[in-house]
Amino acid sequence: MAASTTTRQTPSTGNVNAFKYAESRAAELESLQSIISNRLNDDFRTRRNKRRRTTSFATKTGRRNKQKTSRRVRRRVELQNNPEHGFVVSGDGTKRLRTHVWHAKRFSIQKMWGFYLPLGVHGPGRGSRSLLNCYRQGALIHDASFYTVILLKASQEALLSLLTQLLMPSPSHCSEHLSQRILCGESFGTAMLLHVGQNKPICPVTYLWRPFHQQGTDEETESSSNLRHIWMWMHPSVSAQGLDCIKLVCQNTMNETGVMVDCVSLDGQLGRIDVMGEGAFQILQKILHPLTLSEKSLKLKNLSMKEHTNGCEPTQNNILEKEESFSSHAVLSLNVVDPRFLSTKVVAAVPDAQLAGDLLDLSEDTNKDSHAGSHHEKEDVPFTLQSQNECNSSDLWDSIEKVQPPMEEHLLCQERHKKSLDFFCLKDTSSVKSSRTQENFSTSCPILLMRRSYRSGLLKGWSIVLPISWVKAFWIPFVTRGAHAIGLREKHWISCDVGLPYFPSDFPDCPAYSSFMANKAEAVEQTMDCRSPAMKPFKVPMLLPWNSRCFTINDGISQSSAVTLSCNRGVNVDQSHDVPPNDLCEISVARTCKELTSFLHEISGDHLLLFPKGLNADSFSSLMISETNISQASGTVPLASQGNRLCYLRVLLRAFREGVFDEGAVICAPHFSDISLWTRSENGEGLHVPDAFVSSYFKEQSPGKWEFQMPEDAAAREAYRRPIGFVTTGFVRGSKRPSAIGLCEAVLLAQLRLDQWSQTYPKKRRKEVFVLVRNLRSTAYRLALATILLEEQEDDVESF
After folding, report:
1. Would you state the pLDDT for residue 4?
2. In the prediction, which pLDDT does 363 show?
């Protein structure tokens, strides 16, 4: 049997021809290609969720170095920086305060006047009752660093000539004693900044002269040729316009007299913190501890404490002992220790003079105490202070550009942490070493204290002027010691409660008022657009028609009542007219007695019953009972045509019995029967207008331009009362002395007083004027008493 053998064929070791293989499989590949193309719609790109990361081989360190820092981290680092000058600016150029981060966490922030400013606490804008209680019992604090500061340098004669052209009232028009104090730098002044040659106001300003002895000259050798410095604070809404106006006057002075006047903006170099309230001075005593007192401070203390110390020389430790020792608008120059270095025990236990010596002794790091019983107080200081950086030898005027910034917060925290570890005898195992010795910082700060008081102590407050880099270092200690921070809305409430005007809401004659109210009207319009047509209320003007012809004498309307204003003669109600928008009157607000007197002479109205303070030597009570003034005012002496001039006076409105006056309310002239209805009847219903007349009271002639519309209905004519002004700041809810701020036309107000005095017995006449106030969306008139402020004070240029 033959054995069968199998033969194994060895694989070929030759190369495969790819082209021949592809040709043999071409049909299969083409069919597969067509199937895939149909499924993918000829899109052969790899899907994003199926892709593999091509950088997976890279280390995490490499990716972190190449990855861009997030905006949140970059912004946090930017806002935590504390440069010596300037503000932190956003991408669109809007500036942020040094306390922006603190406010942004707690307040509503609004973009206004080129800044992000704190408007108020979150919510619908309530809480005024609690705020006023805090003002009456504690202290409020406000960051006012957004105000622009202008520096003027020239001889004394040149600066006095400059201020005479720019300010109203100028320092030369003040009393001799006050003018001398302002000129010497012992007090600061307030005035209205005017346009050159137009006498139109721009904004209220606060100005301060640099004292003589701080300029390197002796007081005995003072002359007008010495170089004097002036700081001038103005609102940021008109800072550019005000700076251009001042530079124009400086250029005109240079062209006429050849005297050079330097005008420099110190924007971003000086900060200001306003502290107000009954407890403002007490919290200043806790925070401010002077290291050294300049000659100016001691001189001011000698002058102000002369009556209280019976001629004794004041000592250093009682410079901030009594608030009554400082006069109104007084200025005090101090060099104080960084408040973050002090604890509660140090402030309460160590007097100012001893505190300065103890802080200097701490730098020697000795174990012996120079004062008995002060060892525990020294332990409360977070770290030892370096003597070479202890204080700035010069005051704020000299060191504004060369002042050293405060210690960074993270370095301060490291020092406190190290002190805590040393107290427990522990070692610092962290790798981060303190670099405090290499930092260029200061442990003291030069400041200026400016006292603000108004109307017999209704406003109690102080302003702290300091370098911009030190604002945050002072802000946190003030807040932690009990000061209540406020925004612009709360500041407006306080200004109304104390009777001070608030810029720009109470300044309709300034250009900032129009832009401010236009922006406010636009915001209200956007809010109303979000509502359904059924929920929309009727439109009321935000920009009130201050220059309406209804406030002039010649275009007045007669009243249907038997008792009428003497100025409403010869015009019938049926002769209603619509005033063209281009036929408007020029308005002005008299803020000084001199300005009011000049206006009365201009219109031949010296017989009007307006009594600026200082115009008459007799008391006001004798003027009220005098029948001579009434007979002269009620005579037939014709008044000059007011055609293109309206003059307003600021008044304080107090409800006679009940009522709340809102912003924008109309102030009207009552009939004498209306006053009797309110004064004689306790449960009277008062005076009302028809509902249809409320919505048609104003007529919009063009976008943003409104005008009064005369009533056509008989019932509306009967209830119509002639307007004489508007309410600019309404009542503050929760106030113990509720009052509103308004502006009334001077001639109409004087004629209204004449009508009331002529029909009242002399002993029952009032100094205030009875007026009617009606809110724009209300049908009810409310009786109010209007107090003319220029009859109680020399000027009305103080603002909040």
Report:
1. 44
2. 34
HEC secondary structure over 32-74? HHHHHHHHHCCCCCCCHHHCCCCCCCCCHHHHHHHCCCCHHHH
Sheet of 115-121, strand order:
88-89, 95-96, 115-121, 107-112
pLDDT digits (tens, 9 = 90+) for 378-398: 334 333 333 333 333 457 887
Burial call 583-615: b when 16+ CB within 10 Å, e when fewer = ebbebbbbbbbbbbbebbeebebebbbbbbbee
pLDDT at 243: 93
118 pLDDT band, cuts 50/70/90, is very high
DSSP string, 689-750: --HHHHHTSEEEEETTEEEE----SHHHHHH---EEEEEEE-PPTT-SS--EEEEEEHHHHH
What's the Cα-to-Cα distance from 142 to each of 18, 24, 93, 100, 663, rounded to whole Å?
86, 90, 23, 12, 24
Q: Hey, CA dihedral for 28, 32, 38, 42, is it positive or negative?
A: negative
- Name the residue type at position 183: L
* Residue 583 φ then ψ, to 5°: -100, 80
Distance between start and end Cα atoms, the chain: 131
Mean pLDDT in residue range 209-226: 57
Nearest-angstrom CA–CA distance, 588 and 590: 7
Query: What are the chain's domains?
Result: 125-145+276-361+378-402+440-487 (no CATH), 148-267 (3.30.70.1400), 511-791 (no CATH)
Confidence of residue 728 (pLDDT cuts 50, 70, 90): very high
Angle between helix axes 156-166 and 239-257 (nearest 10 degrees) is: 130
**Which DSSP letter does residue 344 get?**
H
Assigned token pair, 439: 């930092």
Q: Using CA atoms of 534, 539, 542, 546 in order, give the dihedral in degrees to the nearest 10.
A: -170
Mean pLDDT, the chain, whole residue set: 77
Cα distance between residue 568 and residue 558, in whole Å: 5
pLDDT tens digits, one per residue of 246-281: 999 999 888 888 888 899 999 989 999 999 999 999
Q: What is the pTM of this model?
A: 0.79
Shortest CA distance to 265 belongs to which of 111, 156, 153?
Answer: 153
Give the whole-angstrom CA distance, residue 290 versus residue 294. 10
Where does the pLDDT of residue 375 fall: very low under 50, low under 70, confident under 90, or very high at 90 and above? Answer: very low
Q: What is the mean pLDDT of residues 296-322?
A: 46
Cα(131)–Cα(120) distance, rounded to whole angstroms?
11
453 band by pLDDT with thresholds 50, 70 and 90:
confident
Dihedral sign from CA coordinates of 761, 764, 766, 770: negative
Average pLDDT over residues 367-377: 36
**DSSP helix/strand/coil, 615:** coil
CA distances for 663 relative to 151, 446, 510, 613, 688, angstroms: 36, 41, 18, 28, 19
> How many CB atoms neighbour CB 282 within 10 A?
15
Collapsing DSSP states into helix, strand and coil, what is residue 170?
coil
In angstroms, the CA 739 to CA 746 distance is 20
E strands, 455-501, are: 459-467, 484-485
What token pair was written down for 699?
A: 């007529």
Q: DSSP code of 574?
A: T
Percent of the chain with pLDDT over 70: 74
Side-by-side strand order, sheet with 140-143? 290-293, 331-337, 444-454, 459-467, 270-276, 140-143, 484-485
DSSP secondary structure letter of residue 346: H
Task: Give Cα separations from 53 to 58, 69, 127 (angstroms).
Answer: 10, 21, 57
Burial of 680 by CB count in 10 Å (0-12 exposed, 13-18 middle, 19+ buried)?
A: exposed
What average pLDDT does this structure show over 616-622? 62
pLDDT per residue as tens digits for the range 659-674: 899 999 999 999 988 8
